[in-house]
Amino acid sequence: MLVAFLLVHLLAAALAPSLVRRLGAKAFHLLALAPAATAVWAATQMPAGADDAHTEHLDWVAALGMDLSFRMDTLAWVMTLIVSAIGALILVYCAHYFEDDDGNLGLLAGALVGFAGAMLGLVTTDDLLVLYVFWEITTVLSYLLVGYLTTSAASTRAAKQALIVTTFGGLAMLVGIVILGEGAGTYQISELIAEPRTGTLVAWGIALLLVGAITKSALFPFHFWLPGAMAAPTPVSAYLHAAAMVKAGVYLVARFAPGYADLLTWQVVVLALGGFTMLLGGFRATRQTDLKLLLAYGTVSQLGFMLLLVGYGSEGAMLAGLTMLVAHALFKASLFLTTGAIDHAAGTRDIRRLTGVRRRAPLLAVAGTLSAMSMAGIPVLLGFVGKEAALAAVLYPVDGWWSLQGFAAFSVVLGSVLTMAYSVRFVWGAFTDASRPPELPHGQLPSAVRDRQRPEAGATLAAPAGPTAAEEETTWHTPTVILTGVPLLLALASVVMGVTSTTLEGVLEPHASLVTAVPDGYEVHLGLWHGWGLPLYASILVWTLGTLWWWAQARRPVEVPVPLWPFDAGRTYHHLVRGLDRVALEVTGFFQRGSLPVLLGIIVSVLIALPAYQMVTGDIVWPERVRISDSAAQVVVIVLVILAAVLATRARRRLRAVFLVGVTGYGTALLYLLHGAPDIALTQILVETVSLVVLVLVLRRLSGRFPDDPSRMTRRVRALLGTAVGVVVGLSALIATSSRIHEPAGLGLPERAVDYGAGSNIVNVILVDVRAWDTMGELSVVLACATGVASLVFLRDDIMDRVRAGLRTARGTRARLRTPRGDTSRASGPSRWLTAGEQLDPQRRSTMFEVVTRLVFHTVVLWSVYLLLSGHNQPGGGFAAGLVGGLALCLRYLAGRGYELRAALPVMPAALLGSGLFIAAGSALAPMLFGSPALRTWDTYLQIPLLGEVHLVTSLFFDIGVYLVVLGLMLDILRSLGSGIDGQIRLENEQENEQENEQDPSGQDASEQTQGEEVPSR
User: Fold this and answer.
1) What does the radius of gyration of the chain's CA atoms come to, in whole angstroms?
2) Which residues are paired to 68 by β-bridges?
3) pLDDT tens per residue across span 661-693
4) Which SS3 state, helix, strand or coil, does residue 845 take?
5) pTM (2 decimals)?
6) Cis before residue 519, ω within 30 degrees of 0?
7) DSSP assignment of 713-739, as one string?
């Protein structure tokens, strides 16, 4: 059932944007059904003990030992109820808090429901790797929720800050997970805790695991991200930062405490950081004037408190910690929602401006007061029960007061004093008028950034003094029943659970009894009355000192929180991030100075240095015998290739260098052919030809000679680097061939190619059958390259209109040139050889070239189709066939320029690229419709008239997709680097002619000189 509920949350998250578009904010009511159903089901699954846990198991990633294993024990059950029940109430609250026209509401709804599902998976999974997956999902979704107001710089900045901090902790936790899992031979959490291991490596693994916990639960020094995340909408803060996300770290510590709480690393991290965070957050909370920031720093303090308790190591502390976990979820969610309702109604959260809230919303005041009393530990609420149990658990340190346990006891007592102080500050500031000063300094604004930006609220906040009574009456609008009822329901739940806390002890005891690392100094039980004793005396002291602390702060209001010392974690984070940005900028500027020779020099230097170092210092197996060649023909080709390469380095003209480099490519293809690889040789020849065409097209925009004249030293350095690269690569090839420890993978390929792919061309079978998914990725790269090539040339806004106009012109030209049978009125002359011959400049035409193009074009196209159809058994295939078809288009372009190219294939390159990718992907997935695995190949023999028996293989459709993609790339290159550059040259010539005409009015008009030139189009 857990897997089913996870799927329900996933489905709800996927449907949320559509539901919000149709129903508006009321869609939250439907979305609340997913967590509500989960809470109802979980309520019926209460485990009676550690051995009575509900478990589910599904195989997932067997290679990693990563299974969907879920376990509903006591701790998971408590967390499931918190996450689901409170999540459902907050979703209902959102339906009345947000307006239908609030931007990105669909995204917020989907992320909120998805977050509830991710938390459900996190607290119930029994696999550490799956826990990490859910952990990071909550990180990403919290980033989306905190950054909900995309137009707010503060919201975006807070979201990035939370993402960076929690992701850092998550990555550290992942390393710890791997250390623990690999060391124990299992990633099952229940097995790791049942049989905990010891040792230095385990201590490191636990320490890294705790880094993830303290970053997620905002403990010092990572506490600063939580107050910043208050830029999120208040219901989001109520869920993420009170009931769900920040509880993940507490849950993780509570989960691993039974097995590892006795480690010194554990005690130092949990007790020291937990205690200090409780004090730091409490002190900051007592100095806030914004209700939401007050609750945020209070949450930081309470998180330190809870993590200290659940990680303390004793049964009593764990019992108190779990009680506080439940109590905190209730009272802090209620307080956040109360703050949201106040903000929604009054347009401000500033306690210096709020007046009359108790009179206008008495039930809201009751909810806020009860929840604050629970937070302060006032009888008879659940917070009091948890606080009494905590004091009883820590006030009797086994190791004495001068130990970590003594510091924990001191932190709990003093932190509780601060909690009492900021609880009174919240109630007094929100529901009384006495906290409002007679006048506010001019320009003074609250310290928090508002999460709801309404014009009237902004005006109220920006006023230099408090609003008048008339302004208050205008601004205030009574909150709805839901905005008042949900926080009141949570507050009343604290009262009910406080009265029935003895029953809660029986529920929490199964998990608490597992923690025995530290013996209890005092027997701890839940209840409202345990007689007079040290815990009760401490509570009375806490209430008294907390009230006095608040009274002292109220007499001397402080607007800006003051750090305990000059070190500030938030400021340090910002300095660190800015420092990293600066270092990245300097390193990038040092290695990438905008010089291509320098960048290539760095790359080839690394390519030389690392393998060379390994060759010199490593245990290298050199070949016993080196065979230079198999025939004299290979030697001749090698000499030609080397000679062409040397001459290319000495060429001063670009075109000469291009053709010499082409000679090296054709020579390489000839070597493939001599080695018995005709398929690879064919592909190499075609690629080299296409490369030559592209380079020649580009050279039209460059000067004839290389612009630089390097010095003799520069030439020597380049020659040295080139020679060194060749030597290192050659030696690496020799070492690789002599270091084989397994049989060659190609020994059985001829037979397996026929059996698996029903083809005799091993290369093609590998591309379209064995490695078809890799080929799919390469097709995507081809699409990206086509887009990049076009974007480098076409940067004008009107390009699509001009493309369509060019295509319409091409189709019209072809229609005009069609003549009925027997019609001999077709124009004679050179124009008849090409479809668009009439539009060409007569002075720049070659009749012989047009005749040759007319004669061979269809033959080349037919050859490309033959290579496509026969490539599964003979040299060819979709890639080679597409290149041949593209070269046929090159002929048409060179003979008739862009006019003829559009007449030859009057379609958009994007249509060919998209259709090809669609056909290839469809042919790969189609077998799944028939119950077979993806990329399954079927073959059959068909009798076709005139052709005879034809062997048809379904992977041919995949090849057709490849063919169309390559053909689309070629068409895109020709229209970009061909027609596009033609148009740029034409425009430049027109501008030059216009300038000449201005200087010489008797000169020929520029438009006449360029008549017949085409308009660039893609």
Assistant:
1) 38
2) 58
3) 999 999 999 999 998 888 899 999 999 998 888
4) coil
5) 0.71
6) no
7) HHHHHHHHHHHHHHHHHHHHHHHHHH-
